[in-house]
Amino acid sequence: MRAALVPLVVLSAACSRPPSVPVCGLHSATAPVVVLGGKDDQVLAIGAKVMSGDKIKAKGVALLECFTGSLKVLDGDTVLVGELQEATLEGITMPRKVLKQGALVANAALAPSVIVRYSDNRFTPASSFANDKGPTTADYMKAFFTPNGLANLGGDTARPEGPVNLPPPTQRPKFSRVHGGELGEGGPLLKVTDEVIFAESDDLATAALVHGNTYDLGRTLRLIVPRGAEGKLQLGSQTIDLEGPMDLRLR
Known about the structure:
It is built from 2 helices and 19 strands. The chain is globular and about 55 Å long. It is mainly beta. The N terminus is likely disordered. The protein has a 7-stranded mixed beta sheet, with no helix packed on it. The chain has a 4-stranded antiparallel beta sheet with strand order 4-1-6-7, with no helix packed on it. The chain has a 4-stranded antiparallel beta sheet with strand order 3-2-5-8, with no helix packed on it. The protein has a domain of 89 residues.
């Protein structure tokens, strides 16, 4: 009987799975990104941590910012996050540039650690939406890309985002969080002439800027221009052509 236990122990060890751990964050998206599996697919919130065991589907174009410093653009893709290979990720080798006196120059500064920027609050609760069946694509866009989006959905039936009872600001922990939102007013203009360019403001609001449109960049601090994406940055009377791949700091 003792000998018969050995194969059983080996088989049990072979079937064990490594724990799912956070490896990336959802930086921004043009449409919902959902985690597949379980009874219902769940919509990832902008700024949420993405786990290695997540099988996710991007219903549009989305940007994952991984905690190695690499970036991954999804365009209608379905992927198992833990199987993404470093060779398929941009970011570590993506040229880093900074705008200085109207010119794009190499930026030698290392990117900051990004893991602290993403939240463990991963999903947009269905209870936040007036539709009992959960958020639609239109709901998602209103929630994350319009001012006070969640508050404007469904009137009295919509619940406010986040905790209701908070301590005074002076007693709250100090940390930053990526969130979908407006980039602010003023600043340079960006016309996206091909694909999608991702933006990030100085207060970590993010947006996915789609081709054919011109955007007021407001408080934008960073532009991520993936391979194949192009745009024209308007600085007063000067126009600067942007062509990916490029991780550009505006200031």
